[in-house]
Amino acid sequence: MSYTTTKEMLGKALKNNYAVCAFNAENLEMIQAVILGAEELDAPVIIQTTPSTVKYIDCMFFHAITRVASENSHIPAALHLDHGNSFDLVCKAVDSGYSSVMIDASQKSLEENINATKKAVRFARARGVPVEAELGRVGGKEDELTVDGSIYTDPGDAAKFVKQTGVDSLAVAIGTAHGLYNSEPKLDLDRLSEIKKIIKIPLVLHGATGLSDDIIKECVKRGINKINFATELRQAYTNAVREKLSSDAHIIDPKIYGGHARDRVKELVKEKIILSGSAGRL
Q1: What is the pLDDT of residues 195-213, one digit of tens each?
Q2: Which of 7, 81, 85, 106 could form a disulfide with 101 if both were Cys (CB 3.0 to 4.6 A apart)?
Q3: Cα(10)–Cα(168) distance, integer angstroms
Q4: Is 161 helix (H, G, I), strand (E, B) or coil?
């Protein structure tokens, strides 16, 4: 199967009522962890990078690593730009070989969001790359993205947005937030069900870190087909590095603590894949 776009994998998830996991990666070890975990469960998977990540490591490097890792694997894997905050960055990701992109103009007005998304869709689709967008605002902080408060997705606006933009998938705001929660959020699941009745493309859940397993399962049941995981992976990786270095002050080989962190992230990846219902969905 190897390197592919998100179009087919999310189409299958939509048809069969499960979600594909999208994991934000920061380095080689995290990419390896995602691919290895998905391989063990025969699951499709999406690797994501944010704008701040590709400032640190260029899009071309991430594409090269992900492509090599996936083409030596039997699973379908895609590389997705998460929260693309400009048309230029969307173009750069596509030109670098990314197989999926997100244009995030959700902090703009509805009409400005529609126009920005239409422009990204025209560019990416001409090159065979599917596009995700966001309507409403998912609050919280992730990387350099900070959104004060949430604005829930209006079902009527969502219908207009999808029709006018031709976007391939839509991230909806139903009460989740990026980053860490101080307490369990209360999601508007009825809103999600209402959007699902109207929108016939895959729906995306951002801000899944910290949600209970039951809530995630209910979101999938009500129509979520892609779930983003970021903060939890960073926590797992960093905590594993700290743990390994504190266990032996003489460790200087990055492969030792990097490999330990990779194994920890891989186990977390497997947990989320099983939770999303995408295990065995090749």
Answers
A1: 999 999 999 999 888 899 9
A2: 81
A3: 9
A4: helix
